[in-house]
């Protein structure tokens, strides 16, 4: 039986239409029709355009009658649409005064900001038709995916081990061995690998629709593209070019299938989201959507109508405007409800704390709204707590006890210390402790610890290059950070010197030893576990080639490194004391402090002095942490270029020290640890680390 408010009242060509429902925004399937709803505060008129799929011109244009506008919302129901073969867009009438920031132009055809699918980019790398001025068209999808009982996993944040990946890079190379290379489906084929590695959360670099041909250019015969996707075209639509099934209109289902399969294997999904700017750029950029719909609402503008550029990408979204704030909330709710996403990492999140003039706010409404939102109640929220305008908020990002942070201070400190900066010692104790100096009133789980990520050197390049080598980007090596805290171990780039190569592997293992035995949430960069290289490029944002693609042949070449990382992941999983979600410096049921720091002599350490040698010990209380027995975990650290002897702490007489991991060698399986012959002291070689257990 049809609802009374879905009886058509008007007709155009073969279509019937009537006033629609305001909510939800976007294009929503209703009784025998589609409800279109879109906001525009300052426009004087709006027209809906409907296209047959792939056709250049619309088959019908329907102006919204004035009575179809309520407040600042145009809404209309249209009946008789063939949903599977229809694309749509909008025209807006209004004033055109760039110096006022008003950019209405009825000749522009605009993309619905709430479109759930965007046509025109279904095949990655297929160049757009230059004759088509409206290449980003909205498509209507049926929300009928069978989740088979799935829901977000809600793994406690302190139990996560995060694995950051680029959807295309992960399997695009021939060496990946998957059928659907560079796609969501390709990742599904690698789920057994992810499980074996021991991670339980993947963080996907941007999967919202973007245009890989934005700022595309040819350098030295190679096509460079917008490869990373940090330039969103539509926040509600998945990147169709990442789906093997996109030519059949199935990109949404393919991404949902990936998430469902990951969940079935105990792996959460966090999306890297970019709300700080859009693909429309500055005054010279295209008008794709927001500019032509309501420029002054969606962007931060100067009094002269220019774009503030705190993102470094041309424009900055007006995130704390009430309309924009609700737009972002609607988006995140949609991805949690319709895609079962477990969390979000917010790119350049400090921008989200700025007001309409660009000034930082003490209590930004958007951040508070996200923290307290009912739908997002169990969703992970992670801030990249800085922006391109110099606002650095690591340790001070507004949180309401809900937000975690990418801990850039952890990255910088560990890099400097491992390469030999003794002055970092007083800081590194805090970083290992879960950054209690930054998050002491909250939890170690607030700190997402990482040493490498998509932005910068890979782990292998961190120990193989002193300088960045971004010449292939065509910017005369000016792009990318100059401050990498890297050390090439004696030779720039690849070498046949066996001693240098052994040192590099040991240095990578040293960093992993610290990362995976620190409190907080560890994050690994995909491919680092088998020494993937970008050949010294620390800003591969434009490289759709072997610079960015993971070379899976290196998994065999660096199997020892992979086994070490996997072993540490399993070791961390087995010992909840390292994953504690609170700061506890007192003694526990073992009679020892839960976490203590030592010099080469137990209990003797001046935490204010520079050093390259120290140790730390966890005391795992079996009652408190629910394990089978009390255990001690002792990590000895020697970042010096000389050997040092460590006196071992005295533990209960019934216990013995056993060797678990040695960065000169391997990680031993649980139950196969080697009991030390000398229970009183051990010699630790230059630039190496070991993990002992006392049990």
UniProtKB/TrEMBL annotation:
GO terms for molecular function: amylo-alpha-1,6-glucosidase activity. PANTHER family: GLYCOGEN DEBRANCHING ENZYME (PTHR43002). SUPFAM superfamilies: (Trans)glycosidases, E set domains, Glycosyl hydrolase domain. The keyword Iron does not apply. Residues 471-493 are annotated as: Disordered. InterPro entries: GH (IPR017853), GH13_cat_dom (IPR006047), Glyco_hydro_13_N (IPR004193), Glyco_hydro_b (IPR013780), Glycogen_debranch_GlgX (IPR011837), Ig-like_fold (IPR013783), Ig_E-set (IPR014756). Residues 471-481 have a biased composition (Basic and acidic residues). Keywords: Glycosidase, Hydrolase, Transit peptide. The keyword Hydrolase applies. Residues 164-572 form the Glycosyl hydrolase family 13 catalytic domain. GO terms for biological process: glycogen catabolic process. CDD domains: AmyAc_Glg_debranch, E_set_GDE_N. This is Glycogen debranching enzyme GlgX. Belongs to the glycosyl hydrolase 13 family. It holds the Pfam family Alpha-amylase.
């Amino acid at each position: 039986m049809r609802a009374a408010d879905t009886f058509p009242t008007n007709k155009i060509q073969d279509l019937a239409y009537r006033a629609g429902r305001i909510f939800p925004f976007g294009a929503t399937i209703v009784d025998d029709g589609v409800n279109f709803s879109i906001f525009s505060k300052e426009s004087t008129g709006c027209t809906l355009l409907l296209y047959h799929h792939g056709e250049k011109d619309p088959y019908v244009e329907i102006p919204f009658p004035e009575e179809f506008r309520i407040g600042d919302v145009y809404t209309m129901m249209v009946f008789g649409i063939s949903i599977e073969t229809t694309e749509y867009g909008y025209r807006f009438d209004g004033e055109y005064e760039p110096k006022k920031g008003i950019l209405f132009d009825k000749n522009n055809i605009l993309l619905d900001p709430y479109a759930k699918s965007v046509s025109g980019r279904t095949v990655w790398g297929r160049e757009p038709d230059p004759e088509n001025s409206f290449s980003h068209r909205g498509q209507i999808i049926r929300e009928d995916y069978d989740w088979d009982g799935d829901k977000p996993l809600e793994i406690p944040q302190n139990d996560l081990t995060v694995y950051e990946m680029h959807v295309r890079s992960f399997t695009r190379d021939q060496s990946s061995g998957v059928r659907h290379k560079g796609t969501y489906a390709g990742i599904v084929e690698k789920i057994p690998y992810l499980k074996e590695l021991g991670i339980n959360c993947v963080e996907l670099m941007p999967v919202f629709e973007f245009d890989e041909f934005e700022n595309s250019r040819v350098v030295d015969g190679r096509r460079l593209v917008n490869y990373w996707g940090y330039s969103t075209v539509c926040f509600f639509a998945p990147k169709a070019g990442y789906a093997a099934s996109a030519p059949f209109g199935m990109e949404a289902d393919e991404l949902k299938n990936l998430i469902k399969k990951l969940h079935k294997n105990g792996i959460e999904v966090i999306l890297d989201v970019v709300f700080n700017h859009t693909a429309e750029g500055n005054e010279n950029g295209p008008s794709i959507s927001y500019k032509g719909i309501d420029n002054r609402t969606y962007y931060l503008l100067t009094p002269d109508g220019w774009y503030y550029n705190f993102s470094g990408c041309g424009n900055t979204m007006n995130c704390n405007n009430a309309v924009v704030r609700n737009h972002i909330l609607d988006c995140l709710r949609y991805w949690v409800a319709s895609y079962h996403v477990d969390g979000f990492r917010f790119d350049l999140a400090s921008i989200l704390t700025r007001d309409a003039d660009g000034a930082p706010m003490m209590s930004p409404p958007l951040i508070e709204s996200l923290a307290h939102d009912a739908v997002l109640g169990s969703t992970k929220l992670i801030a990249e707590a800085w922006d391109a305008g110099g606002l650095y908020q690591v340790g001070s990002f507004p949180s309401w006890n809900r937000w975690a942070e990418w801990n850039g201070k952890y990255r910088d400190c560990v890099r400097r210390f491992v390469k030999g900066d003794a002055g970092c010692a007083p800081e590194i104790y805090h970083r290992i402790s879960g950054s209690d100096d930054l998050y002491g009133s909250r939890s170690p789980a607030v700190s997402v610890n990482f040493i490498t990520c998509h932005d910068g050197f890979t782990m292998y390049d961190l120990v193989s290059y002193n300088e960045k080598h971004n010449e292939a980007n065509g910017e005369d090596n000016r792009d990318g950070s100059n401050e990498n805290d890297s050390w090439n171990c004696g030779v720039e780039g690849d070498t046949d010197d066996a001693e240098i190569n052994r040192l590099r592997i040991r240095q990578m293992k040293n960093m992993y030893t610290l990362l995976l035995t620190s409190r907080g949430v560890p994050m690994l960069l995909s491919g680092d576990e088998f020494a993937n290289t970008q050949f010294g490029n620390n800003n591969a944002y434009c490289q759709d080639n072997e610079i960015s693609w993971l070379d899976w042949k290196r998994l065999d070449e660096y199997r020892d490194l992979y086994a070490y990382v996997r072993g540490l992941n399993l070791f961390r999983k087995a010992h909840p004391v390292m994953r504690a979600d609170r700061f506890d410096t007192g003694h526990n049921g073992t009679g020892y402090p839960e976490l203590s720091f030592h010099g080469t002599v137990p209990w003797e350490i001046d935490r204010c002095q520079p050093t390259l040698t120290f140790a730390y010990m966890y005391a795992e209380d079996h009652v408190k942490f629910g394990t089978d027995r009390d255990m001690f975990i002792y990590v000895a650290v020697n970042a010096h270029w000389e050997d040092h002897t460590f006196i071992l702490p005295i533990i209960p007489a019934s216990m013995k020290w056993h060797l678990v991991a040695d960065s000169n060698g391997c990680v031993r399986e649980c139950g196969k640890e080697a009991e030390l012959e000398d229970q009183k002291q051990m010699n630790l070689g230059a630039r190496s680390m070991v993990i002992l257990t006392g049990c």
